[in-house]
Amino acid sequence: MIALKNKNKILVMAILLTACVLFVYYFHIILHVDVIFTHLFYVPIILAATWWQRKGIAVALFLMTIILLSHLYYTDINETIASDLLRGSIFVVIAIVVSMLSEHIRRAEGELRKTGDYLENLITNTSAPIIVWNPELIITRFNNAFERLTGYETGEVVGRELTILFPEISKDEVLCKIRQSLTGEKWESVEIPILCVSGNIKTILWNLANIHSPDSKDVVATIAQGVDITERKQITEALRKSKDKYHSLVSSMGDTIYLVDRDCRYLFMDEQYRKRRGLYLYEVTEKTYGDLHFEDQAKAFSEVVERVFETGKSLQNEVRSVKKDRYFLKTLSPVKNESGAVTSVTVVSKDITDRKKAEDGLRISEEKYRTILESIEDGYFETDIGGNFTFFNNAMCRILGYHSDELTGMNYKQYTEEGRIKKVYQAYNRVYTTGEPAKGFAWMIKRKDGEKRFLEASISLIKNLEGQPVGFRGIARDITERKQAEEYLRQTLEELKRKDRELRETTVQLIQTEKLTALGEMSAGIAHEINQPLNGIAIISQDILRDIDKKRFNAEALGDSLKEVIKQVNRMSIIIDHMRLFTRRSIKGAGEAIDVNKSVEGTFMMLGQQLQVHNIEVKKELSSDLPMVTINQIELEQVFINLINNARSAIEEYRKEGGIVEIKSFFREVQGKREVLVSIKDNGGGIPDNVRDKVYEPFFTTKRPGEGTGLGLSISMKIISEAGGRIEFESEEGKGSTFSVILPVKQTETR
Questions:
Q1: Phi and psi dihedrals of 129, rounded to 5?
Q2: Radius of gyration of the chain from Cα atoms?
Q3: Which of its termini does the chain have fewer beta carbons within 10 Å around, N or C?
Q4: Could you tell me what percentage of the chain is helix, strand and coil, using 3-state DSSP and rounding each to the nearest 5?
Q5: 3-state class of 75 per DSSP?
Q6: Tens digit of each residue's pLDDT (9 = 90 or more) over 210-246
Q7: From start to end of 425-547, where are the E strands?
Q8: Average pLDDT along the chain
């Protein structure tokens, strides 16, 4: 390209020079004109000087020679030589000036080109990422460092919008800042996130400058140079987190941290210790340990610091603050330089007052509980997981009959009776597998002297701090005497049960005897009750026989007579059945739901005639809508018979005539309790005050010997009590007594 260009220049120059020669020839030779307008000669001279610098002088000399030769050939040389020489000199001067200017421009262009190449090379190959964009935010330059930083190639980004380099989350904020910079706002050392091809985001510290037009008014481009500070940011963030963590750790520890030299002068002091001492930060290094503590404390501290310097090892020192009555554990650690020499000592002072108090409390508690364990009569023991003794009190030694040295490490199998070993193992295993204590577990043991005793223990699991089972603990007591007492009580209870059965049998017999006694007393009345229907049957039978003899047989009259006979027979059957049931032996637990009015009527079926014989009037007032009660009907009738017989006896002893027995039955509800009440009232002499507390006692009677057993009221009370009821009485001497039988109503019964 350069050769072709030079060739073109030579061709152009040859044409111009030829034109100049022809121009001279035309004016001088053809037209014979002496004056030639040489202004056109300056064109090839200036071009030659411009293109070839000093070679332009040769062109000027050539043209000056042409002019001189032409004038010498056709004109007066005296007239023209001076002007031709002047023109030629002007040609040469112009050539020299233009060539010099051209050389200067050429050198300037070379320097400028070198500078441009240098700057281009600097921008392209510098290690710092550089990017250039125009006012429309289109990327125009993108150096190699930026390629390495983002992973983009120059061809991929040049000509594209700047937004491709920014992550979506910060794009708007960054573009806003860039647009503000176009208005002249300075932008130095600003952190901008850059989105790489891989999707990673890197933090770049940017310096930005605007490039203005020559008039310094319009921004034509913006160049930005950045530094990748991603790792530095990460390191800074890690250091910040580490510092925050360290500061938080130190603050949360509650421990005091400070640094001293060999003379115990403070080199560093944490904030809480400094504030507690009332010191400003600049005052720390002006103080020694002795300035802030008592002399004896400072001396002791100095000795420990000296030992750390001499040994190069950490030491712990427990001290007590007399002023504050608190305990502190000081851990002194050496700080060494690169050669291993101790240069200072770090002190961590921990307040252990609470721990000391806890230890003292634990020691006192251990002593107290050890005293308790040694003073109690029950044995306390601890074993490992295999059942071997690890701890026990003196009571345990007394129970088993072994010395403490002999009992240490002894397994439960050695003192357990052989047939009970499996049972004991199962108890321990159940506690181990379930974690639940075994309470009141008893087994037979064998003392050292061979005596067999019963041992009762409560066993629980011992766990370590991780919650793992490591053994068992328990409380044990010798229950041999209790076992013997329990056996004696069991035998006694069996004997009592046997006696109770005998007593119940005797009671039944007494009740039966009482029934028979009552039946004997009622026999005359019962005979009268049976005689009445028998007499009626006899009269009817005689009438029938007389009608037969007189041959006055009438079928209709005969039928009526036979019906009457059957009626009387049924009446006797009822009386006999009732007597048979009454004399039957009672069966316990055979209670049934009954109407008490029927029992009252059944009683008077057997006693009514007897009361008439004794001229005693009976008044009955029975409610018709009584609810049912649960009791043995025959036993209830026996109660009524006993009470009516007692009323009859009381009347006969007190008055000869005018005796009255009143029977009432009714329902009542008292304090939510539903009851049926049957009262038997007489107008006898009443019960004396001095014997009222004895009326229910067995074998107590006010009758003459041979006239009563004294069991009637006690048996009646027992019968009613077993049915859940009670018997109450009221009595007034000279006016009579009232006995009330009160029975509970079944909850499901309604009136």
A1: -65, 130
A2: 70
A3: N
A4: 55, 25, 20
A5: coil
A6: 887 777 677 888 888 888 888 777 777 776 776 666 5
A7: 438-446, 452-463, 469-478
A8: 78
Task: Match 């802030």 to its residue by tokens.
Answer: 292
Residue 578 to residues 570, 604, 696, Cα–Cα distance (Å): 12, 11, 28
Count Cβ atoms below 10 Å from residue 689 Cβ, excluding itself: 10
- C-alpha–C-alpha distance, residues 532 and 541, integer Å: 14
Lowest mean pLDDT among 100-104, 423-427, 462-466, 682-686: 100-104
Mean pLDDT to the nearest integer, 445-450: 89
Q: Please tell me the pTM assigned to this model.
A: 0.33
- Supply the CATH classification number for the domain 126-235: 3.30.450.20
Distance between CA atoms of 43 and 239, rounded to whole angstroms?
76
What single-letter amino acid sits at 50?
T
| Rounded distance between C-alpha atoms, residue 750 and residue 357, angstroms | 74
- Measured from the Cβ of residue 273, the count of other Cβ atoms closer than 10 Å reads 19
Distance in angstroms (rounded) separating the CA atoms of residues 628 and 596: 8
The reply to whether domains 254-357 and 376-478 share a CATH topology is: yes
The answer to whether the beta carbons of residues 718 and 594 sit under 8 Å apart is no
Higher local confidence (pLDDT), 468 or 703: 468
pLDDT at residue 665 above 90?
yes
Distance CA 578, CA 576 (A): 5
Strand segments (E) across 196-297: 201-212, 219-228, 256-260, 266-269
Write the CA distances from 736 to 78, 617, 691, integer angstroms: 204, 15, 15
Could you state, in order of their start, the residue ranges of all structural domains in the chain?
A: 2-120, 126-235, 254-357, 376-478, 524-744
Closest CA to 438 of 476, 466, 465, 400: 476
The beta strands (E) that lie in 584-685 are given as 592-594, 616-622, 629-631, 659-670, 673-682
Which residues share a beta bridge with 130? 225
Sheet holding 315-321, edge to edge: 266-269, 256-260, 342-351, 326-336, 315-321
CATH no., domain 254-357: 3.30.450.20
Provide the Cα torsion 630, 633, 634, 637; round to 10°: 100
- Measured CA to CA, the distance from residue 515 to residue 508 in angstroms comes to 10
CATH topology of domain 524-744: Heat Shock Protein 90 (3.30.565)
| Run of H or E residues at 189 | strand 187-195
State the CB neighbour count (10 A cutoff) for residue 598: 13
Do the bridges between strand 616-622 and strand 659-670 make them parallel or antiparallel, or are there none, so unpaired?
parallel
| pLDDT single digits (tens) 1-50 | 344 467 777 787 878 777 777 777 776 666 666 655 666 777 787 777 77
How far apart are the C-alpha atoms of 727 and 646, rounded to whole Å?
14
**What CATH architecture is 376-478?**
2-Layer Sandwich (3.30)
Task: Report the number of secondary-structure helices (H) and strands (E) in the chain.
Answer: 21, 22
Torsion of CA 450, 451, 452, 458, to 10 degrees: -100
Q: Which two tokens stand for residue 720?
A: 């009613």
Do residues 42 and 94 touch, judged by C-beta distance below 8 A?
yes
DSSP 340: S
Rounded to an integer, the average pLDDT of 689-713 is 66
